[in-house]
Amino acid sequence: MVFKPTRGDLPARFGPGIPNVPPIGPSTLDADVYRDPERFEQERLRVLNRSWQIICRSSEIPGPGDHHVWEGHGESIVVTRRKDGGLAGFHNVCQHRGTRIVVENGVGARRFTCRWHNWAYDVEGRVIGVPDRPDFDRATLNGLCSPAVELDEWGGWVWAVLAGPGVAGPLLDWIGPELAGDLGAFRMEDMKLVEKVEWEVDVNWKVVIDAFSEFYHAQALHQIPAADVKDARQATMDVFGRNGMMVVPLMGVLEELRRTLDHTSLAICNYNLFPSAVFNCHNVHTQLFRSVPLGVNRTRFEAWELQYDTDDEDYQDLAEMLWEGIKAVVQQDVDEWVNVAAVARSSAYRQNIFNERECLITHFHRVCDDMLAGGDGLGLEPERTMARPPRS
C-alpha cells in the first residue's frame, strides 16, 4: 500500500479565514543585488555559510566510513557516517598547503589521506599523520585539524552549517514548527531518490530561488490550461521565520480542497527553506529544487526527484509520468534563464518590480539583507492581523 500524505491535524493553509497573501505588498529590488561581486562575497560569508543547507540524502552515506564530498560557493566539505551512526564533517582543505583532501564520494573510509604530501586526517578532520613530522614546528601541529561543520539529519536529508557548530542554532528551529509540520507530513524520510538532474546556468543563485517562489510566470512561460490559471488565483502564500510556503490548487482540485481543506493531499505545496532550497510537494512525489552558487553569475541548479519506496507498479508508472512532466516544465525555466543572463549587465536593467503575489521573493530578499547587516533573518514577518481576506 502506497503512503498517501494528508493534512491530519495540521493547521489549515487554505479556506475560510486564510488570506491569499500576507500583507507584504508590492516591492522593488535593485538589480545590483544579483550582479555585485562584493555583495556575493558577503553573501557567501554572512548568509550561506551561516545557514543550514542540504548536502545529500542520508541514504547516500548509510554505513560507517561512507562519505560525501559537497562543493559550492567556494567551499568544499566532506561528511562521513561514523561508527555510532552519527555524522562527522569538516572543511575538505588540507591544513598543510591548501588542497582538497578527499576528491570524490566513497565508502568504508577510516581515514583520509591528502595525495599531495600524504598528510592523513581522521573522519572528524583531525590531523593524525604527517610525514617527516620532526621537520615541522611541534606547537603548530599540536591539535591541528580542518575546521568542523555542524551536521544534522531531518526528512531523510543531511544538513550542514559550514560556519561551524553553534552558529545557526538547532536545525529544527531553523526549519520552524510550521514547515517542519507541513513538510514533514510528506514523510520524505520514507522516500527514495529516483533521479537528480543538474544544470550549470549563468545567473546569480537568487534568480533560481526567485523562480520557484512564485506561480505568476506559469501562465506565460509554461502555458498552463486556462482552468489552472483561474484556480491558481486562489493560491495561498505565507511566511514563517526566514521561510515561505505556497499552496496552489491545480488539476481541478479546487472545489474538493474548499470542501475538505486538505491541502496536503490535494494541492501543490511549495516550501521555501532559506536560503537555497525549495521543496515542491505533491501527494505522489516530491522535488527538491536547490540553488548552489558557483560565482556571482554562475549557479549549479539541481532538481531532485523523490518517490515513495514501493513495488506498486501503477504508482511507479504514475510517478514517473508526472516526473517526466516536471522535468519538461523545469527545462523551460532553465531555458528562460539564458535570456536573464543575456541582459544581466545591461544599463537598462535597473530593478525588479514585484507584485503582491511575489511576496515570497520579497521576504526572501529581506532576510538576505538582514543577515548581510549582521542580523539573524528573524522577526521580518508582517503582522497577521494586517492580512488581507481571501479572494472570493
Per CATH, the architecture of the largest domain is Alpha-Beta Complex
Based on CA atoms alone, the radius of gyration comes out at 22 Å
Kindly report the CATH topology of the largest domain: Naphthalene 1,2-dioxygenase Alpha Subunit, Chain A, domain 1
Q: What proportion of the residues is helical, as a percent range?
A: 25-40%
Topology:
Layout: E1 27-30, H1 37-48, E2 53-57, E3 67-72, E4 75-81, E5 87-91, E6 112-113, E7 120-121, E8 127-129, H2 138-141, E9 150-154, E10 157-161, H3 171-184, E11 191-201, H4 205-211, H5 218-221, H6 226-232, E12 236-240, E13 243-248, H7 254-260, H8 263-266, E14 268-273, E15 277-281, E16 285-295, E17 298-308, H9 313-342, E18 351-354, H10 359-372
Antiparallel strand pairs: 1-18, 2-10, 3-4, 4-5, 6-7, 7-8, 9-10, 11-17, 12-13, 13-14, 14-15, 15-16, 16-17
Cofactor: Fe cation
Keywords: 2Fe-2S, Iron, Iron-sulfur, Metal-binding, Oxidoreductase
Organism: Microbispora triticiradicis
Structure, described:
This is Rieske domain-containing protein. InterPro entries: Rieske_2Fe-2S (IPR017941), Rieske_2Fe-2S_sf (IPR036922), Ring_hydroxy_dOase_asu_C_dom (IPR015879), Rng_hydr_dOase-A (IPR001663). Keywords: 2Fe-2S, Iron, Iron-sulfur, Metal-binding, Oxidoreductase. Residues 1-22 are annotated as: Disordered. 39% of the residues are buried. The chain folds into two domains: 27-51 and 172-386, Naphthalene 1,2-dioxygenase Alpha Subunit, Chain A, domain 1 (Alpha-Beta Complex), CATH 3.90.380.10; 53-152, Rieske [2Fe-2S] iron-sulphur domain (Rieske Iron-sulfur Protein), CATH 2.102.10.10. It is built from ten helices and 18 strands. The radius of gyration is 22 Å and the shape is globular. By secondary structure, it is α+β, with helices and mostly antiparallel strands. Strands 11-17-16-15-14-13-12 form a seven-stranded antiparallel beta sheet. A three-stranded antiparallel beta sheet has the order 2-10-9, with no helix packed on it.
